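Lab notebook page, bench 4
Experiment: in silico fold of construct C2
Operator: M.H.
Input chain length: 771 residues
Purpose: comparison with the prior construct
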Amino acid sequence: MSEKIFRLPAIPLRGLTILPGTTVHFDVSRKSSILAAEAAMVHGVRLFVVAQKDPVEETPGFDGIYRMGTLVNIKQLSKLPDNVVRVMVEAESKAEVIEFLDEADYLEARVVPHQVEEVELNDVQEEAFARELKDMLKAFDSSTHELPVTALQSLLNISKLEELMLQSMMRIKVGFKTKQEFLEADGTVERFEVVAKFLNKENEIGAIRNEIVEKVKERLDKNQREHILREQMQVIREELGDDYMSGAEELEEKIMELDADEAVKEKLLKELNRYKSFGGNAMESNIIRTYIETLLDLPWNQVTEENPDLNNAQEILDRDHYGLEKVKARVLEFLAVRVLTQARGNSPIVCLVGPPGTGKTSIAKSVAEALNKSYVRISLGGVDDESEIRGHRKTYVGAMPGRIANALKQAKSSNPLILFDEIDKLGRGIHGDPASALLEVMDSEQNFAFRDNYVEVPIDLSKALFIATANDMNTIPLPLIDRMEIIEVEGYTENEKFHIAKEHLVDKEFEKNGIKKSQLKITDEGIYSIIKYYTREAGVRQLDREISEICRKAARFLVQDGKKSLKVTSKNIEKYLGKKKFDIELANDENDIGIVRGLAWTAVGGTTLQIEVNTMPGKGELRITGQLGDVMKESAQIALSYVRSIAENYDVDKEFFAENDLHIHVPEGAVPKDGPSAGITMATAILSAVSGIPVNCKVAMTGEINLRGKVMPIGGLKEKLLAAKNAGIEKVLVPKKNIPDAEEISQEIKEGMEIVFVEQMDQVLKHALVK
């Protein structure tokens, strides 16, 4: 080994070892590697290349590379797209790296070149090694067939052992680690051992592969023979007359008897002819038979006669639902329109929007019963594939019709009532937009010829009645909303929940749990206690579950303890339901500074929202906490700006806001809150905190505020007033523009509260602040 040390640009190579005496090209993309190649090219110096141990490693250090590499001369640099450079090099000799240097923008290495070893073998020995290597190459080619004929012949014509070994390593697919062993080997014999070890291993692998291939071929031949025999058996069965042809005749008879349009029958007969042309065991025949049977099951021209009696419809709605007068009136109007238009596509599609558990689905069932229609429910929650609506093409494996076609098949009628449940929870995934597929279904101008991908012939949906339900209208796509008439189903009052429980839920749960009325009695006070302390919802679903739990506990007492009769009251309710889950958030007993009671709407009904404001020395910063949404944070900024504009009227120092910080907090910080309706509440709380004037603890308010102090309308008024009533609020401040909404609210909710309509913040402060 030469003692001369060179300092050269270096490039670590991924999965590549370059052998001396070869000309190769490789691609580099690392910035440091590109700079190293360019430096070697510009300065006319050699380049040192070395394989890294882990090809995946992005920036290998000194321990991440092999010690032995190759000195090369760069012949050409070519720039490729995506910042990749192709380098063509001519390898001179191998060299050993001593260390890496980080003084330049690229990698430099101190390397020691290795001199070419003198030939260790005499002519006879070299000839013996060469012949042995050629025999191994012939065996390699016969077992793997990797080498082209010309390449093998070229290798066999080489007489020099070193040249033969080098060309073998270059022409055969050899891993870079094997080439690295060849590069690091000292002497001809050691290099021969590397090549021989690789070829012997590949020959063994090739022999095993050939044995496996032979066994697979024998097995395939056996399967082919069995397949031919099965086909011969099938022909014999057909000659003798079997179930296949009789099944085809049965299908043909059903097609001729089918009550459908000629286009449908023509399509079925065409598919039947295809079915007859296939063998009974053919996969295609099974697909065609399933398709024909599916179309035969669809109710093409089968209809049920509608009941046009609105009095009957009203009786059924009143029987199944307590309250909901506005909703029932809208439903009856909707049914009246269907009677006048003869129920063919001109009446609007109804969408019932309201909180969970308010009876939206059961209203649809009642409408179906009133009209004497088949009822089918399609749950759309979480559906994110358009094929769920339109179906899959029958050419796909496991194809099936969409949910609309399946609904008709289930209803066995072409004019059923189809309920699209939870239409606001439709998803949108990589397989298309199901909401867009529903546009055709819900459009009377298009749905008379609805196309299902599986059925392939138009389906008339104009006779069907569609009703949709949703919890939140904001998540329904606008094109769908445009095709529907929205009917809002509001939450129940405490009194309505009481009547629903007493007249419907208690009897239902008694029957469900096998309890007689003589064995268990739930008093009126007990029902009110369940409503107040064990449920907090707009609907009655949780109330039903609590009554069910009482029945189960009572059943155990009756069976296990031998009780004859039980009575549930407000005093012993905890014996059946445990400790109270909720407590009514009553109004504060004392007036306080910076604390105001607001009213909020949630998906499960209304609630009161206490807003707190505190001041402290600082630099005029505003801090808002309570997990508030962007809209509510902006309302706080607007409220603060308004208060600053009128602060002088309440003897607040001009420098107060520059020398003090404000902190607004809405308790229950783990619950997300948003919306603009707390604007006047926050403005009142801020003014009270900065002026020191207390707020009346028996006053609650709701309303949006603008920068001029004008009070703007809000939504969910019924739920908010109900929450105020439950909290013992005596006076509620409501935007004046919500007067029409307030007039529609029952007197039961408004009784005992003074509702003051305001349109300016001056009026709000007059009623809220205690002078």
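Observations: The first helix runs from residue 31 to 43. The chain has 27 helices and 22 strands.
Next step: discuss at group meeting.
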